[in-house]
Design the sequence.
């Protein structure tokens, strides 16, 4: 299959406007007499609000409204950005109010002020008098499940959010038959998304009483639903508009600020109110990546065959449910179609603690599990004295594999080729030889890690997408898609797909940038690396409908059967002769203006995609560890992806750059640090929170082995989240290779690395050598 | 046929936002660093631009660009807001440039300045140095056709724009067979629309090089085309957005300012530029109603039967073609299906003069012809000593009549009933008796006049309309229609239609207010009283498609045939048993979230309406004429309409209020006065131009005789323009009745009335009585 536009390095359609500063984000819009909303946050990690007195705040000139839980509907709602389920047992957990009467973490929203400007709003916050009854708090997951632990959600019997797991095969048999059972415990930290644009929204009530919300979100249609649910309003009376979005990474796949900004406007008689989080607020009151503690018991045969995998996973979910149970499930699911285990038993325990809320973040549980599993496999290989690459390759699944739980089928599988490609790129064998007997302070090593990932959520959740195409008089088109551009480049890829099907150059495709739930075709949003795969299906469907309508007009004019016709570069041609029949513009003009046949060409359609495609990949890293400082430098890093046909290499490389950068931070420096005594976040800003900067980042290399995936509308599979899954374990395994120490906890920052080096005696040894 | 929502007095959907000032018009939007565009206008009615020096203007700080015809494409284009025709012979006349090199009226646009603010722009205009070669000018139509008259458009052989007329029957035979041939000459003045919101627009070039125009227009999709044509750009690269519009009356059915505002932005490197006309500019450089001089030769039989009508019409079109030929044609066409003439010969001569451009205005030629014809008929009746009502009734066409030229069929006809109703309402017979032998200074009389009008332009032009409906999760819908709300209430009526078909209360229909050519379904715009009739057809089509999809879901669930099901007030019911099956919301939720059947319900469709429906009506007026001052007071006025089923009585009454008010001004006070020497407009503002105020206006009464029109989707016919057609001759005939003087020229302002009274000797006579 050859493509004309798909697969080409088309420039981002929104590139120029974004680099010139003309693109409009939520904060670039404003309404006349816009008010400012601010939130009073709990200073305590766990406390009952005994009393609130807002009298003084309300009396301040310029204050329009002060609201507390007393002023709002007593409706508990769920914030996770999932498609609604008609089956009540598949719904998210309704455990929060818009403003709470019980603080469950430092920063929990207690009251809100609406004022004419920010200064007055800040002043008013200080005038709100709150009497708290402070309760003992829990920060660690282990503490949450202790007997007599304080209960965070009083309506529940304990702090366990979910223990829903899975089991395939017969784990007891495999454990019995094992040559050896390997054990391992791996731990990941709580980290934050750090998208460039903080959560920001504004809202007003229109003259017909409908609530309008302009928000930086990944999921406008879901925001509509959840605001409706939180406020007890009919969903059709909520309208959500999404302008350009400056990143989300899953943090905006949660309905975090929209119910409150709507409530603020309602309290201010429908006037427009802006509620924009500061970076500090974004750190504490949005979502984090779950810290997990993963324990393995792995049954391996004598010949190094992986037999059974018994996993326990203790997941720290923070104060509210959000995506909790689902992320834990995903952690136990995404890796399943990778190695050919006979049996996998997965037992997660997701618990509430008095920490900021964990939710969706790029990889959705997979980076944690991949770090654990791929570290564990290297540990096993090392113990068995098998080459870690050969060990993995010997245990990989094969094309045609059917995941026993999801029933998703592996229809394309070139991970072995990816592994070979990465090995070659990083010069694995050469470096292995070279680094065999290192001495000195700085030691180098190479490591790798594999992953598998799904394309969307099928069959766990609904996968529907909508698209609309309108053809103009010159044959150019507008494309409206429900799938949400949040910076990843999806609009460009969808534009390529439409251009491909209709035979247009890309500059004749105008993708509608702003989403408005009133008119944008329905789509559940941007998450689960579903866009190119799921929404790609509907873009193709809509474009093929437009193409068919064009060819019907042409066929009616020239008498030839539609099958004999094609559209090539804006011309209708007779396929077999290559003969030009007329221009696409001729047909478009006829569709608009013919007195008899007039019928402008559009398509407005949806696709219910009841398939999945499993994508794969591998990271290779080379590191240098300074055993005197504990500093790890990543010298080279390669991600090689099995993501089917790549729609746009430039954009794909961009995904890898971003995902690997996130993986580097995850491996080496990022973690949210909490004061044990108070539960307060100590590093709530980008100075103290150690995000990787460009100075810390090596050249990030990517390669793609492209094999047509039959389930993809253009042979494509997922890529977006995939890129961030395997860097951390690859780096960890490279460090193991370099200095012989396996770090089972990330981040491997200089302090933790140095402590372990010291503990191991390596420094002393090193010192001796240098003498 | 009974309706639940259609025909009800639903409040305007945009009512609250408009009375509270929250509705957003073009001037309520702005872009960062918006520039201001201003135009240098010719002080001469007819002059060649010999030289322009813009150096000084360009040098002024704050000036971004100065443009003249030299900077713009040399493309002549037409501005009339008609659907494009694939047949070149049916197109409008391309006779103008965006900026001209030859001034053809005082106010013609010579150069434009783009500056950072209005003051600087005004200053810069004064710094532009223009050298003119002044030519002799023509203001009167009679002068335009004289031999050796100066030629206004040098590429043409003379000043005649069009003489395209029509002939049905054999006029010579009827003239030969006539008992008597009546002659009459009637003349109307040039008037202006005076919509509340002047023409205003702003434009910028987006990052992909597409021109975006936000404009107060009746015809966004046509603006797109004409801007493309004027600038020589592909139409798909133009995007036009229409916010709320503060009236148009046909003046915004012309592409007046948009090509220039786009050119201004292009000259300013794509920055946003606002170009808003002042009231004074709006008077001179938009469009006017054509002044016409209509001559009749009317053949009448012995028994008062109208046999043949021979019409000459001299039409003053001003400086550019605009709608010229088309308005003249319409003047000769709209009245045809009213009286049962054997033959009608219509010979218009539309000429260029050096006056502001005449174009479309509510009634589109019909008010002129109706004034002439209905005055003429009263004159004939008077001479034949027949009651003017009986005279008309005896000559009316009958249901089933087929217009010999258009082939439009009269499928519903209750004008006779309207005539009777109006006669009764005004107490005609009683007043006729009472006013028989009046003496004194103030004399009263009653008069009436009939009209016929089309619903849209079929078969003259394409009549297509588009609509899109999106159903929300709660069963409420959004309705996007191409038909343009410009203040007339069409959005409300379309909302009612959709609600009717889908079984919704009106507050569950959300009509999308802003039009955007990128996504709004195609429609040629708001004109020709086509909206309710033509766009009504597509709203019904779309709503019935949505209804069908809902019932298909329901039928699949319950097993009953779709025909057995209905939607009543948001419930799906089994028709025959009246049994509730489920709620509409259940179906909508299923359409969004069912894992298998998911397929959100939408419709995106168009209708090519190849039909017309002829509407009728009559005005009755009672006046009191002060023969000492020449002042005419309208004491009572009634419009009775045959417009099929009325969709919304409140809105229909609003149309009558506005249309009759316009008719009152047309009859009594409005006229644009030009200085003969210079061609300059003397009354270019609302103080000197005598628009009727609320103080001048009697209670305007309306009545409707409703008969289902089979061609209308809900039995409806046109109404909007109709209301303004017959008031002027009704008033004129009432004056004739009061004082025995027939005014053959409007406006009948005190000066002209008094002059004629004096001339007639009536004042002297009156004086005697009083002694």
Sequence:
């Amino acid at each position: 299959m050859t493509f004309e536009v798909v697969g080409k390095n088309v420039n981002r359609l929104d590139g120029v406007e974004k680099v010139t500063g003309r693109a409009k984000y939520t904060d670039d819009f404003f309404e006349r007499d816009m008010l400012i909303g601010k939130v009073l946050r709990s200073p305590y990690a766990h406390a009952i609000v005994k009393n609130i007195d807002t009298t003084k705040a309300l009396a301040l000139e310029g204050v329009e409204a002060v609201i507390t839980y007393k002023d709002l509907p007593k409706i508990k709602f769920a914030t996770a950005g999932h498609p609604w389920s008609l089956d009540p047992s598949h719904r998210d957990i309704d455990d929060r109010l818009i403003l709470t009467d019980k603080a469950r973490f430092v920063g929990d929203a207690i009251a809100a002020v609406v004022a004419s400007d920010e200064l007055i709003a800040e002043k008013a916050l200080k005038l709100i008098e709150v009497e708290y009854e402070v309760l003992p708090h829990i920060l660690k997951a282990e503490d949450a499940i202790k007997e007599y632990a304080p209960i965070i959600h009083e309506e529940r019997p304990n702090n366990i959010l979910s223990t829903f797991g899975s089991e395939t095969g017969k784990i007891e048999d495999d454990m019995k038959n094992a040559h050896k059972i390997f054990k391992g415990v791996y731990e990941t930290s709580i980290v934050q998304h750090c998208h460039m644009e903080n959560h920001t929204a504004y809202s007003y009530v229109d003259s017909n009483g409908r609530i309008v919300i302009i928000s930086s979100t990944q999921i406008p249609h879901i925001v509509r639903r959840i605001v409706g649910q939180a406020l007890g309003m009919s969903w059709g009376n909520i309208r959500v508009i999404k302008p350009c979005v400056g990143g989300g990474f899953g943090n905006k796949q949660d309905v975090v600020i929209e119910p409150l900004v709507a409530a603020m406007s309602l309290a201010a008689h429908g006037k427009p109110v802006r509620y924009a989080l500061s970076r500090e607020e974004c750190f504490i009151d949005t979502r984090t990546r779950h810290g997990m503690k993963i324990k393995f018991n792995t049954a391996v045969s004598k010949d190094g065959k992986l037999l059974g995998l018994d996993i326990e996973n203790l997941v720290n979910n923070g104060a509210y449910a959000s995506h909790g149970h689902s992320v834990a499930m995903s952690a136990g699911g995404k890796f399943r179609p990778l190695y050919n285990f006979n049996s996998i038993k997965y037992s997660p325990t997701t618990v509430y603690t008095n920490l900021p809320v964990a939710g969706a973040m790029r990889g959705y549980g997979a980076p944690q599990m991949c770090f654990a599993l791929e570290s564990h496999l290297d540990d096993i290989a090392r113990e068995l004295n098998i080459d870690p690459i050969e060990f993995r390759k010997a245990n990989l699944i094969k094309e045609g594999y059917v995941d026993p739980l999801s029933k998703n089928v592996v229809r394309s599988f070139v991970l072995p080729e990816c592994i070979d490609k990465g090995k070659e790129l990083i010069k694995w064998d050469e470096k292995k030889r070279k680094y065999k007997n290192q001495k000195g302070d700085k030691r180098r090593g190479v490591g790798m890690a594999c992953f598998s990932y799904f394309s969307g959520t099928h069959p766990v959740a609904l996968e529907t997408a909508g698209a609309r195409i309108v053809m103009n008089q010159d044959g150019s088109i507008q494309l409206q898609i429900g799938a949400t551009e949040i910076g990843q480049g999806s609009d460009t890829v969808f534009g390529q797909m439409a251009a491909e099907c209709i035979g247009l150059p890309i500059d004749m495709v105008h993708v509608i940038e702003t989403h408005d739930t009133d008119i944008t075709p329905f789509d559940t949003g941007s998450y689960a690396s579903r866009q190119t795969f799921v929404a790609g299906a509907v873009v193709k469907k809509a474009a093929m409908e437009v193409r068919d309508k064009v060819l019907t007009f042409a066929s009616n004019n020239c008498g030839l059967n539609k099958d004999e016709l094609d559209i090539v570069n804006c011309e209708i041609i007779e396929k077999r002769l290559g003969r030009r029949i007329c221009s696409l513009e001729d047909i478009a003009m006829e569709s608009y203006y013919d007195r008899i046949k007039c019928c402008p060409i559009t398509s407005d359609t949806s696709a219910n995609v009841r398939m999945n495609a499993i994508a794969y990949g591998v990271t290779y890293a080379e590191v240098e560890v300074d055993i005197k400082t504990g500093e790890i430098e990543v010298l080279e890093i390669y991600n090689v992806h099995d993501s089917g046909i790549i729609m746009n290499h430039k954009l794909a490389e961009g995904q890898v750059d971003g995902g690997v950068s996130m993986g580097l931070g995850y491996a080496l420096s990022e973690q949210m640090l909490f004061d044990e005594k108070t539960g307060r976040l100590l590093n709530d800003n980008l100075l103290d929170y150690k995000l990787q900067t460009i100075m810390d980042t090596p050249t990030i290399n990517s390669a793609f082995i492209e094999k047509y995936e039959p389930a993809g509308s253009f042979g494509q599979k997922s890529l977006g989240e995939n890129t961030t899954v395997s860097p951390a374990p690859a780096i960890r395994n490279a460090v193991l290779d370099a200095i012989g120490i396996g770090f089972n906890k990330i981040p491997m920052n200089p302090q933790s690395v140095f402590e372990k080096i010291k503990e191991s005696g390596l420094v002393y040894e090193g010192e001796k050598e240098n003498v």
User: Anything to note?
Assistant: Residues 203 and 213 of chain A are 4 Å apart (CA to CA). Chain A has a mean pLDDT of 97. Chain A touches chain B through 59 residues (CB under 8 Å). Chain A has three domains: 15-22+464-608, 31-137+193-284, 374-457+613-770.
